[in-house]
Amino acid sequence: MRTPDEFNEWYQDIVEKAGLADKRYPIKGMNVWTGYGWKAMRLIDNYFREEFDGTGHDEVCFPLLIPQNEFQKEADHIKGFGAEVYWVTHAGENKLDIPLLLRPTSETAMYPIFHLWVRSHADLPLKTYQIVNVFRYETKQTRAFIRMREIHFFEAHTCHEDFEDAEAQIKENLDIMARLARRLCLPYVVCKRPDWDKFAGAFYTIGIDSLMPTGRTLQMGSIHQYKDNFSKPYDITYEDENGAHIHVHQTTYGMSERILGALISIHNDERGIILPPDIAPIQIVIVPIISKTEPEAVMARCGELVDVLKKSGYRVHLDLRDLRPGNKFYDWELRGVPLRIELGARDMKANIITLARRDTGERVQIGNDAMLEGISENMKAIQANIFAKAELIMRNSIHNVDDLKKVQPGINVMGWCGGEDCGHSIEQATEMSVLGEPVGVTHSATKCIVCGTSTEKSIYVARTY
Amino acid sequence: MRTPDEFNEWYQDIVEKAGLADKRYPIKGMNVWTGYGWKAMRLIDNYFREEFDGTGHDEVCFPLLIPQNEFQKEADHIKGFGAEVYWVTHAGENKLDIPLLLRPTSETAMYPIFHLWVRSHADLPLKTYQIVNVFRYETKQTRAFIRMREIHFFEAHTCHEDFEDAEAQIKENLDIMARLARRLCLPYVVCKRPDWDKFAGAFYTIGIDSLMPTGRTLQMGSIHQYKDNFSKPYDITYEDENGAHIHVHQTTYGMSERILGALISIHNDERGIILPPDIAPIQIVIVPIISKTEPEAVMARCGELVDVLKKSGYRVHLDLRDLRPGNKFYDWELRGVPLRIELGARDMKANIITLARRDTGERVQIGNDAMLEGISENMKAIQANIFAKAELIMRNSIHNVDDLKKVQPGINVMGWCGGEDCGHSIEQATEMSVLGEPVGVTHSATKCIVCGTSTEKSIYVARTY
Description:
2 copies of one chain form a homodimer.
Chain A: H1 4-17, E1 21-22, E2 32-33, H2 35-54, E3 58-59, E4 65-67, H3 68-71, H4 75-81, E5 86-91, E6 94-102, H5 107-117, E7 126-135, E8 150-160, H6 163-184, E9 189-192, E10 204-211, E11 217-227, E12 237-239, E13 245-247, E14 249-256, H7 258-266, E15 268-269, E16 272-273, E17 284-289, H8 295-311, E18 316-318, H9 325-334, E19 339-344, H10 345-349, E20 352-357, E21 363-367, H11 371-395, E22 398-400, E23 411-415, H12 420-430, E24 433-438, E25 458-462
Parallel strand pairs in A: 3-7, 17-18, 17-19, 22-23
Antiparallel strand pairs in A: 1-2, 4-6, 5-6, 7-8, 8-14, 9-10, 9-24, 10-11, 11-14, 12-13, 15-16, 19-20, 20-21, 23-25, 24-25
């Protein structure tokens, strides 16, 4: 186990060593997505698309720039984001009449248009999403994928007839998250954030947090119930049967490149990262073991293997570099390729392939006739194993505490009366944050850890990124 | 045939009517991509990816913002783009020390990093591309997909050992364009632009132009040979066998949402647009013809059809709106869906479906057992037919002229001595632009149309967008 400091150093290092991002771009907090990292991110994006297309959302793309006057319509929202926005003040030689800002999130870009799109009952629910980059002038220390100033971002925005229909959307979003997490092998907890930590302008906010090896939680996503907080200033209404204009209720669902940051942080060992098969840009690497005799036969067989595996839908790479096999193993283990096939003259004679699993390091030999079945089974086993391992670690890091002096790294569960003062006292005493009330699980408390008031309500408390 | 004015009005109108973009966003030249248009664009993007991945390019993603000092390293490049860039001068409450600009194109974002990526011979060729939005403060009249201030952009950037290797890349790019054009049903001409019209910083520029119904050409893409014009100011070098540091030779290949603008402009009729099957977000729409008897049976059969067609890989939509079939036909014809299936009780009894082709308006009946074959054949026929039709129109719009007073709408071919003065004279006399010398086709001239000097060189001259 790495200490938090060791982990942080390892993380900063592996991002570049594994070829996920290049941090040398001459603006702080803005990295270059290199081929391998971008491919992984795009595979994650495709699962977002699959889920949101499959639940009737329409993918759209709104402009990056937002006029200052549109941005300023919802007061809390400006308070929340005002200090973080980048301002475009000039174009060519001209000073702009109205300054434009780079979207920190797209409510204020979309909602003036939703005002035009929603006219009647028949236009609802309006379910849209987009995958774009957003910009936030972070003042804290930046960290690849986790705290950036240009952020690869997913955002779903919906409009509904009433509060209940918006609530049903939030349920759908939680189901989507559950399916995504299984695919991405990412355990998480869901909490309703306390009022003082909700999204700027939201009625309430649900945070989706993963637990990092430092014992801190990372917010990977958030789901917001806006009620009519935005539809009022942006005048998004529909006409009901009686001709009255009713303000819609809205929800949003945001996720980002933090998902990739969480994946790398959670799935790794001393040799490097371990990518879940579903998002690995290379799922299988083939390393030829060239002997002095029959090198051509081995190469020909490797070529055949690539074709067969590609046809079966795998992302395969044949490593033909002029390096010793051991060096190649080292490289691909560092970069997290789930399965490696080693193939030499001896394997060919025995009609087998040798398969090495990245997660366990196990090497197994499979007869050629059972190869595809064997690969498919091993892929599934890797996916299941790394998810189960990560889930166990998280479960073991959730501690019930009845004394604020006894909080530990990880997630601390305690009783809370619901009072904001007691909440702040918890945060001050523990130097941690209140993640909020867990959603979908019950941890019955008996009394508030601060004031002792009798309560069944419990909250999660943790250090956060 | 629409007059140019009628065409322009029709175009501005159809973009919104067909649901491709919403032009009501409150910043001039920045539109909202609505679901249907964005899906078409993403399908086009996927063909870009297929081609560039297939030729060994790596997809990357560089930051949007570029520091002023990096931008200013290549003098001609600044001259070309300086007047068009958006400047970020503030973040939050702070004035930035170094102003940042929104990329108008990514040379000056990428090349400081290419300086780090290219060290030796083994790093070459470096072949990368990205699909991002770029920003240009256009002062001319804006037009959806054709002249925008936020532009959905494709850019490939490569580094090579020497000029010849960069030239080979340009050949590969032209082959890629030929394959893309067949897929997208887009005839085009390729010209080496005259020196006064090359890309800011390029050694030479090849323009890829389509011909619009207004008789003007539209530059859909461009390929640039940079030689070492950028590698010198950005110090991108590799070490050769003798330890000498050699500047790389570079190329770029740019395309944009103009491809979609060209598609809509070229493939349409009085009923609306006609989308080539490969980029149609909906390839087949099913319209149930509900009679008073047996409505359930028809609906059940329609549901079955959707499943079968989806399984065969088609993008299918079942139109269940409470509208008369004729209204539905009108809608989907306007939006360019290539094939429509009409299905009623009579068809069911006869074990057939009725298929309507968008390009010809033909309706054919196909037996259920030959349905998939019939659909596949009709799709191919549509693709071939609209491409052939567009090619014929373009071929017939290329005119040889030997008198500057006789130029016509479309592309005019004439002899040119190669002198810049004569080139400008041609442009002044015709109020057209010199597209340049055609690449890959020969139109032997005998003398320069201006000065009469004997020459075999001919050029294309046209009005442009």
